[in-house]
Amino acid sequence: MAVDLSALAFAIVDIVGVIGILVWHVQGKDRPTARLIVQILFFAAMTATFLSQGIVPFRVTTGELEGLTAYLGKSARVLWWVHLAWATIGFVRLYIALDRRPQEARLIQDLIVAGVYLGGALSIIGFVFGAPIGTLVATSGVVAIILGLALQNTLGDLFSGVALTLGRPFTIGDWIQLGDGTEGRVIQNNWRSTQILTPAHNVVVLPNSALAKLSLTNLTRPDESHLVVLAIRIATDRQPSAIEAILVSALEDCRFIVQEPKPVVAFKGIDAIAIDVELLFRVTSPANRVPARNEIIDVVSQQCATQGLGFAMPAQAYLVVPSLGDKMEKSGSVGGLPCAL
Q1: Do you know which SUPFAM superfamilies this protein is assigned to (predicted)?
Q2: Selecting from 2.30.30.60, 2.170.270.10, 3.40.50.1370, 3.40.50.620, what CATH number does the domain 169-218 have?
């Protein structure tokens, strides 16, 4: 008679467990609190059913090892462990959070969830099916070594993803520049890879292990404004102060650059032919560098033409001939004058 009552209790637990799984899926992920409450209620009902018949959920007794009772008992205990794991995971997802650090909180949650699933699987194998857990763990260690060697690159990407998550060198939406020249906005980041949208509107997928080895410049921090340097050469037919005033006036007329802090005209050098000038200005975003540079070149060209300033050729385009008698194969100039090659 006791066996029949046990079989009835196991059948009730099986029915309650299956209904709990269906309700758990119907609740959806957008209602975590209600989902956790329902999960706890179903788990409590299953536990109460076990205890009402004096059955220990995590221990198999001798009387359950034969016939239908054995199958019902195993399935009931498997469902009990599954609901326990899901209730624990629901609690972890809902209450383990770090203020202003969502990535770290997500990482901690995922690690705990993985531990819960692993513990639940070992508990089912050991307490429900009676397998020797010690031997299983020892065997799984050898299997883990084999899998680690076979999945070396994948595991490298995984641990590099963990390091990037903890270090937080960038977040989704940041504009970054890598040491290999890759540049763009981060659109997705997971444990396996990082996706970057380049200015050419292509998506570059970088394994985290490769990304962790590259030097990285975050152009979004502390803000997204970006410094641009444009080098020009002005002929030395005006005083440097007059040239500076003309170029500053041209920069103030540009719409694509940031006027605070103000753009700067920096003299880098001077020779008998030209003055080397660098125009330093900021743009609101790295994506605005091309239109800002185009506008600067157009405005400066117009302003120089209006004010009578001439552009000089690059220094590498001139050759000084030391004497009149030398043979000149690449130049037609004479007597130490600069000649364009």
Answers
A1: Mechanosensitive channel protein MscS (YggB), C-terminal domain, Sm-like ribonucleoproteins
A2: 2.30.30.60
What is the Cα–Cα distance from 67 to 194, expressed in whole angstroms? 54
d(CA 303, CA 306): 5
Domain boundaries, the chain: 2-149, 169-218, 226-313
Detail the DSSP E strand segments found in the chain. 175-178, 183-189, 193-197, 203-207, 216-218, 226-235, 264-270, 274-283, 318-320, 338-340
pLDDT digits (tens, 9 = 90+) for 287-335: 888 899 999 999 999 989 998 888 888 877 665 555 545 544 444 444 4
Residues 257-276 pLDDT 10s: 888 888 999 999 988 889 99
Distance (Å, rounded) from C-alpha 341 to C-alpha 336? 14
Structure tokens at 82: 């599954």
Could you give the CA distance from residue 292 to residue 282 in angstroms, rounded to a whole number?
9
Q: How many Å apart are CA 1 and CA 7, to the nearest integer? A: 10
Query: What is the average pLDDT score of the chain?
Result: 79
Q: Write down the CATH number for the domain with range 226-313.
A: 3.30.70.100
